[in-house]
Amino acid sequence: AQRVTQPEKLLSVFKGAPVELKCNYSYSGSPELFWYVQYSRQRLQLLLRHISRESIKGFTADLNKGETSFHLKKPFAQEEDSAMYYCALKGRSNTGKLIFGQGTTLQVKP
Amino acid sequence: DTGVSQNPRHKITKRGQNVTFRCDPISEHNRLYWYRQTLGQGPEFLTYFQNEAQLEKSRLLSDRFSAERPKGSFSTLEIQRTEQGDSAMYLCASSPTSGGASGANVLTFGAGSRLTVL
Description:
The complex is a heterodimer. Chain A is an all-beta fold. Helix content of chain A is about 0%, strand content about 45%. Chain A has strands at about 5, 10-15, 20, 25, 35-40, 45-50, 60, 70-75, 85-90, 100, 105-110. By secondary structure, chain B is mainly β. In chain B, a hairpin with a 2-residue loop joins strand 5 and strand 6 (about 55). The chains are: A mainly beta, B mainly beta. At the A-B interface, strand 6, strand 9 and strand 10 of A face strand 4, strand 5 and strand 10 of B.
């Protein structure tokens, strides 16, 4: 089965602290993974995708096939990072359909 | 083109009524998706269009749900005989067929249409 699990519903950190949002997936084969973010009162938008290997707003995510994980990390959290974060997996079909996790709310306190 | 547009943004209806949502995707995007999101959950896939062809439907899409994309541009999602369990945010997304910085698997989402069934 293709599945994405985000074990934490809420992650609360202080400004300047490191952040790690966990994502585990279930997929046989070579997965394509994404992180989407939804800021307050804004629409869901792409943050980063693993094949791009880029850092967006200081966030990075490394695909670990051995642990079937794609955790999102940032060394120093900022208040403006407070948002809902969704990990997503491209399904096996060639439609581009994404399978989303339940999401983690990141709260960065001043 | 200001992105994916959805209307109405909010709809309150009584149980048993029919509702229709409209999605206008990014004009050059061939692929269009409908998702449903309930409180505390991630978006759940409902259906997918490649141009005007509906190529995939989730088992979540009961017989009361129907989606169309008649000319391969805008799409509508109709829910007949609404039930309280249909209350959710209905999200539309679009993507290009292939390539580019915004690749085929990068979905651009609309703001959503929130349905409340009383």
